[in-house]
């Protein structure tokens, strides 16, 4: 990693955890039907944020690290068998080169269309909430199938933007269902968007917190933070990019890229 400069406000740095093996989409990070690998797209998207002082990829796979170096990015090789992407990010955050960084941002490697402004927003949210150890994002849910999909993680926050609970279930649970609940001007349901900003000191301690019953039941790591009594602040965005989890997701992304290229060439 390159030396870091300091500014008067809180410093921040983006770490992109990436693994080669994916059950639903093998070799996902190195797919390149667009002319660039998926990890290359995500790296470039993260670079559009204006707040962070740098970006790197954290990976256990030499092929991914070599690809990042090939396109001119920075990569950090971590050991194998790391429990989670968060732990991988924490290993990078512990390096001496990042000792002066205040905020570490975790952007998933399969988010090639992540908006730089959303990375900036989650950093700003954590800066503006001194009592919080983490910040993340949410966006309104307007379709019932999405609300009921366990793969779509929901979040409920208080009036000050502090997370009350994350769940794979439909929360809040409407006692009397009405389809108009999905179209009210003020949304009732919110999808959690998996971009995280951590205070560096807290991130280094997070892996030491014991796993909790709720975390294991829901398979949601952020519940460990809430159960330990910490604050996660949640900032709302109007819409979010689609992550790449399946072959269909990737093909849709390829088509969007082709359409965008045609428009720019017209």
Strand order of the largest sheet: 3-2-1-4-8-5-9
Poorly predicted spans:
2-7
User: What is the structural class?
Assistant: alpha/beta
**Name of the CATH first level:** Alpha Beta
Number of beta-strand segments: 9
What Rg, in angstroms, do the CA atoms define?
Answer: 18 Å
Explain what you see.
- The protein is of the alpha/beta class and 266 residues long.
- The protein has a single domain, classed as Spore Coat Polysaccharide Biosynthesis Protein SpsA, Chain A (Alpha-Beta Complex).
- The protein is built from nine helices and nine strands.
- It has helices spanning 38-47, 62-70, 85-93, 116-127, 144-147, 200-206, 213-218, 222-227, 247-265, and strands at residues 12-18, 55-59, 75-77, 103-106, 134-140, 154-157, 163-167, 190-199, 232-236.
- The chain has a seven-stranded mixed beta sheet with strand order 3-2-1-4-8-5-9, with helices on both faces. Strands 6-7 form a two-stranded antiparallel ribbon.
- The longest helix has 19 residues, at 247-265.
Summarize the structure.
By secondary structure, the protein is α/β, with parallel strands linked by helices.
Characteristics:
266 residues; 19% strand; two-stranded antiparallel ribbon; Spore Coat Polysaccharide Biosynthesis Protein SpsA, Chain A; alpha/beta; seven-stranded mixed β-sheet; single chain; 9 helices; disordered N terminus
Topology (SSEs and partners):
Elements: E1 12-18, H1 38-47, E2 55-59, H2 62-70, E3 75-77, H3 85-93, E4 103-106, H4 116-127, E5 134-140, H5 144-147, E6 154-157, E7 163-167, E8 190-199, H6 200-206, H7 213-218, H8 222-227, E9 232-236, H9 247-265
Parallel strand pairs: 1-2, 1-4, 2-3, 5-9
Antiparallel strand pairs: 4-8, 5-8, 6-7
